[in-house]
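Wed. Picked up where I left off yesterday with tRNA-2-methylthio-N(6)-dimethylallyladenosine synthase. The coffee machine is broken again, so keeping this brief.
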Amino acid sequence: MLRQTLTIAPAEIARQLALCDQIRALLDQRPGQKLAYVDTYGCQQNEADSERLRGYLARMGYAFSPTEEGADLVLLNTCAIREHAEQRVFGNVGALTHTKRRHPEQVICLCGCMARQDHVAQRLRQSFPHVDLVFGPQLLWQFPQLLLDRLTSGKRVFATEDVPGAVAEGIPVVRQNRQKAWVSIMYGCNNFCTYCIVPYVRGRERSRRPEDILAEVRELAQAGYQDITLLGQNVNSYGKDLGLGVDFAWLLEQVNAIPGEFLIRFMTSHPKDAGARLFDTMAACEKVAPVLHLPFQSGSSRVLQAMHRGYTREHYLSLVDELRARIPEIVLTSDVIVGFPGETQEEFEQTMSLIETVRYDALFTFLFSPRRGTPAERMPDPMPKEQKSANFQRLLQRQNEISWEKHQRYVGGIYRCLVDGQGTDGRLTARTDGGRLVHLAGDPGCIGTWQNARITEASTWALFGDVVEG
Ligand code: SAH
Ligand code: SF4
Ligand code: F3S
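Structure written out below (tokens, as returned):
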């Protein structure tokens, strides 16, 4: 089979890097260190993209500012998943008129998933004249070219057209954390769940070549990274476009075989593509963390079908059984949508009963938010808002109780965890291998090391304990 995915030629990335140097020379004509502020919204995929945008910015000579005030360049990497996310971005973009008034040279850029929506681009054009550059996620690799166009033409630049997604290797990366790293293994999504904007704004599914992924993980392991998360909207369809006969379980084995002491996490798994092969591989790979994020979205098979999810409630529950039979200690987390158009009260009760049956360690609950251009936007939606909100609150409350109960089981036990920082209260923060947050009494010298923690207390959101010496 021919490889369908468009790969950006290395010479093209080299050209982008040369443009970074040109921008640096241009910026050097004005005195002082140039500062960039990068503000990231949305999912880990966007976090990972921002690290590459920072890589380019560093190459252009920018240092990083923790705030937009006084920054020479502001870059908002946006999310379009729900109305609320978009409103926050518009609010923050609006507020930038003030910072730009105080600092007229400021260059304001907006990229990410919102930028790929025509109505957003139109609104930015008409109502936000202080925004200089807008580009969609598929054009991230061209950021140096686009910024140079803006700086030299004196005109606003909008690169928001629907271009086919590609895979670009060799973009520099400035990572935000010294222990944890994101590694995108694929981009885009082919699933077109009827509520979801992602396939429209991120384009079709495309996988990075295994050798590129493995080289990146090897480098991270050698640099001492201890917690590596493989990213994709549906990691279980990794490799399908490559025509190499490789799949995600194979990739996990290859990553697991890389020398070094690090944990492997991944997200997201789609229930329609996850199964025994994945669970067996997770169980057999000692570096793969005992945690799975397996979004169920609804407990009703009828709603799942209307969502175009490709599995039933029964199939989902059988997956959970299979998984727990192989990895009894698995930490299981999920996403759910309340108030999908046409969801009846009875169907919502099936979601309640599913969380009762599965007992997730943590659950991300979302109220349905209509997204422009998706099929669900046009579906009849008779349930009153108040009823949806009441359902949402009930679900949240019950899940909080379950999370609390599940956390109590840790009390009295000793768990390995990676210490990753210090909170404002002076306590250390850490994560168990299963990804549970732990607040620890201990020496700040422990940051960046694995420690055994004795858990003395637990709340809904976190565990509390002490470092066990020796
Ligand atoms: N690719 C991942 C999900 C990415 S989006 C997957 O398929 O699991 C993260 C979560 O946002 C989704 O799991 C879903 O629960 C929620 N979500 C997506 N679109 C939404 C919408 N229009 N309204 C409310 N929640 C939504
Ligand atoms: Fe959206 Fe569905 Fe793709 Fe996830 S799998 S990104 S929910 S379309
Ligand atoms: Fe948001 Fe785009 Fe991620 S819409 S959730 S940032 S893929």
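Quick read: The chain has a mean pLDDT of 96.
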